[in-house]
Amino acid sequence: MDSVKISFEPLDVSAKTINGDIIINEQLLDAGDWDDIMRYVVHEMTHVMQQEAGKVDGVIDEADYLEDENEIEAFNAQMEYMDEHVPKEELQEYLENLLDHHGVEGKERRKVLRTLTKDI
After folding, report:
1. CA–CA separation, 55 vs 26, rounded Å?
2. Distance of CA 16 to CAs 7, 105, 107, 116, Å?
3. What gap in Å lies between CA 100 and CA 96, rounded to an integer?
4. pLDDT tens across 1-14, in order?
């Protein structure tokens, strides 16, 4: 891999990786916050490397998203980046919104939170 293409396009999610190319939701570019964009680039770059290494089997079922080892690895990299570049309150709010979005509650919520933040 000599390069990675990053484009900004309309998406129904914040970012995704397809065949080694990163696509970021153009609304993030419009917001103009470099740290918001970079946290997704870090996450998606992890997926690029996973794809390059043959670690990706296909599309992840939404119900298994936060339990998928590739997603956990990408979120760990993203959380490390965020821990170093955004206020703790913003990191905490992002995590709470992520878990709310995926309907993670109770004991499972604490377990997922520990898994996603194990490197910080």
Report:
1. 28
2. 10, 25, 29, 18
3. 6
4. 789 999 999 999 99
Q: Which parts of the chain have pLDDT scores under 50? A: none
Do residues 48 and 19 lie in contact, with contact meaning Cβ atoms separated by under 8 Å?
A: no
pTM exceeds 0.85 for this model: yes
Tokens (6 digits) for 81:
């980046």
Question: Is 17 strand, coil or helix?
Answer: strand
Cα gap 29→77, rounded to integer Å: 21
Please give the Cα distance from 14 to 26 (Å, whole number).
9
| Residue 112 · residue 75 · CB < 8 Å | no
Tokens of 84: 């170093």
Q: How many CA atoms lie within 13 A of 111 on its CB side?
A: 7
Cα atoms found within 13 Å of the Cα of residue 23, Cβ hemisphere only: 10
Which amino acid appears at position 90 of this protein? Answer: E
* Six-digit token string for 114: 């520990």
Domain ranges for the chain: 6-116
Q: State both tokens at 87.
A: 């206020």
How are strands ordered across the β-sheet holding 15-18? 6-9, 21-25, 15-18
